[in-house]
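ok so I'm stuck.
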Amino acid sequence: MSSPEVSAEVQQPDGVATNEPNPQEATEVAPSPPAAEILNNKSSKPTSPSVASARSPVPNMALNVTPKEQEFTNAKSYLLTASTNSNINLYDHLSRVLTKVLDERPVNVVDVFEDISKNVKKSKFSPDFDTILNKVDKTTEVALAESQKSLFERNQDEGEHEGGGEDEVETPLPNLPELMNYFEQGGVGISREETIRIFLALKQLVDNYPLQTCRFWGKILGTEKNYIVAEVEYREGEEEEEEEEEHDGDEDMEKDEEEGEGEEHEEDDTPKPDFKPPPVIPKEDNHTGANKKLFFVCNEPGKAWTKLPPVTPAQIVCARQIKKFFTGRLDAPIISYPPFPGNEINYLRAQIARISAGTQISPLGFYQFDEEEEEEEEEGARDTFIENPDYEGIPVKDLVDPSLANWVHHAQHILPQGRCSWFNPIQPQEDDFEDEEDEEEREEPDEPEPEVGPPVLTPISEDVEIESTPPWTARLSSTLVPQYAIAMMQSNLWPGAYAFGTEKKFENVYIGSGHKYLPDNYSPPPPPPVEEEFPSGPEITEAEDPTPEEEAALRAAQREAMEAAEDLEDVEEDDDDDE
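replied:
not stuck anymore, here's the structure
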């Protein structure tokens, strides 16, 4: 056996051994000799072909590798060449692919080899940008979906109730899908998907607050966001705690203001004007008048519900004089003339009170006054009523009668003063009775005439027309199948207010921008007239400057007067001396 340093001998047919190279090996490209070896052999003499052929298979003694090993080294170096795009070389990639194949040992590996190669490349992919600095913001759809995720989660109390008891628990939650289905028959309402989301949001509101009643009031459209409005009533005694906390906070603020005013009075004693502003009309108490109901709003189902504050007469009076679109932000300022006393949350509450007073209607006879409270309220206007247990319903054809005599208002009318019950602004004060003499000298102001509005449960047929346009439009939901149609009522005074009636069911809803219909274009009220100047008179009229001649005559007259006075004094002194 020959040593590894000697090339393989080829056996000739006659049995003679020779040192000629193998034809297969001859076809292979021999590696080029190192540069150092070429430099060292520059001065050497040229060798004969026989000698060259004898030396060709001799391995490279300087590197101590065979041609096979040299070829293997060149091939490996080529496989280790990294790509200029992905910075990955084929050698490492094939190693990972084969390792993955041997570890997983899939069936028919030759058919899935390309897929394995792609998966290995994907696992080693690294983006060009820095993932720490580039933070992808959530889209509005993703943020809304996350906020509404809680609507579709069940509470533990519900699971225990369903598994343990058969008794049904009374809940103030209305059957909103059924009610909105009636409105959908009349071509009014919102999409079914949004109906379910609002229904779940109302359920969340009922679970978080001790409510006696809850109703979907409607939806007010805004420029940036919309408002979903819920009309509620607390259970007896539950709201008193919240009112006490709010009242304590108001008292602390009033005390701080009084202390600040006292400090200012001690430091500065500037005179105060005699002008007295008109008396402030107080707001109505909770559960009465315009504050009879409470309202919660939110921008989207699943977001937090916000309780609206009570409305004041000043806010209602000013809301009647301005016209502003809602933005959807409760803290947005209301920039208008006359200036509105509050932000958008107060303007929203004022508009809800106005819309409710003008569009909350019910079939005639559905509500009735309580006989027990009727005697107590004979002196004042009646504002409480109960459901009539003997109500048998009104046929649909009678509900759409053009006379509109079968529908009544069950919400109190708001007076021009901004209240449902009139308040006398001229009230006797305690200071007026201190001095009896001053009391006789003072002129008693004229007693204002009380404002009176239509009572509760007044038929809508008595509503004022709008330039020969009826305030309400009655129609059937379907004229093709009238036997299964329902009655639809549409308000022409407040576009977006609707009501339906069928058998013993009815409901009201408002979906609009919160503005009242005006036959003419809106124009803001003009500013007040300029006050008259002080009446002119001789005591305030400026005198004209005298001429030089008049000044000289005045000086001469003053000299003559002085000389006459001196002469008179001299005469008096002479008379005294003679005596």
